[in-house]
Amino acid sequence: MTETRGERKERTRRAILDAALALCEESSLVALSLRQVAKEVGIVPTAFYRHFDSIEALGLALVDESFVSLRAMLLDVRRSNPGFDHTIDSSIGILVEHVHRQRAHFMFIARERAAGPAQVREAINREIKLFEHELATDLARLPGTAAWSSDDLRILSGLIVTAMVATAEAILRSPGRPDVEKQIVEDARVQLRMVLVGALNWRSRS
Amino acid sequence: MTETRGERKERTRRAILDAALALCEESSLVALSLRQVAKEVGIVPTAFYRHFDSIEALGLALVDESFVSLRAMLLDVRRSNPGFDHTIDSSIGILVEHVHRQRAHFMFIARERAAGPAQVREAINREIKLFEHELATDLARLPGTAAWSSDDLRILSGLIVTAMVATAEAILRSPGRPDVEKQIVEDARVQLRMVLVGALNWRSRS
DNA sequence: AGTTTGAGTGTACGTTCGTACACCGAAAAC
DNA sequence: GTTTTCGGTGTACGAACGTACACTCAAACT
Description:
The structure is a homodimer of 206-residue chains. The first copy, chain A, is built from eight helices and no strands.
């Protein structure tokens, strides 16, 4: 006996999560059947219930798991902060790297945010709001934003998050086309720079 | 006899499109069955094939239809252009109005863009790219962008479209909460103003 | 050593699915 | 007036669906 009971259960749970992530890649959670997942994992359909009450519950677990990845990304961004205005290039580089490494998670979030079961959609949008809030507090530490209202900071970080989500989605939409991706990334850089120029000149005219 | 054969067919076709739009509102095209649609319309399942080859083909028709609405919106924006920098307020007002009047279409696009069948996703993203391009040519006519490269114009309009799509999605996510919606709209205004400030100061520093 | 627990099994049900096929009946074409 | 066209019908099928229920059997507990 090399495996305890809990370990074995956890292993099956993981297999279910992975199978679901892979299977719904070309459609959506709402089109995913419990039987497909069970077949992919290699268990009998009813065994699914030993781990999740429903596909929706499975979805919520996947949301949690996915946002662990995303928070790791934000940590990377914070940690790598070079203090320069290479910040933009560095941050986008980290985004791109995480999108590639956690491709399935990013695709899951992008899809289910708009099309998942209601609870899943809400969970995702709640997490993204949190994300925006965290970015806002990071931005507040940057020089030049001292005079900004907290509303303006929130709105700016909303804009940045929106642009970065769109960039991630665009990258996911162009798999195996390095030239296209290069263009997307370059565009994202310019967009962030434009926003930054707007930010630096903000308040000076209003 | 008050109806020709073609008219009757068109009426059924419309009923199918409307039923599909309504039925997939809480899930997605990929989870929509031909039989549900047929039942909703009041025809027998096999009669569906008289109008569409598949649910996917139906989806493509819905994309076409939805983007007719969206182009109407762009026309409204162009027509109403007050020449002032009330342009932002005016444009956002038009966006909000269209989102409310074509709620189902906007929701369809937002959902299926990320989660629909492959062809539907591609069709939607192609149309959005077109949208960005049209906006770019509009922007080129604005004062102050004379010295801009066509790349920068394209990138700027991409940023604006992204922000407006996100705004529309946020509005759709907050139905029947006028206060929340007011905040979303106000934030969108500020975001556009920030971007505008960035645009006006662009090139002057790079 | 004996008992309990619980992940996974196997069968069995009623429902819904897409679609094949033969058919109908009135508008359209001749 | 006869024939053709074609939107819609009705039946019928095998497959997949969620889930209820009774089961096994090894690890975990006592």
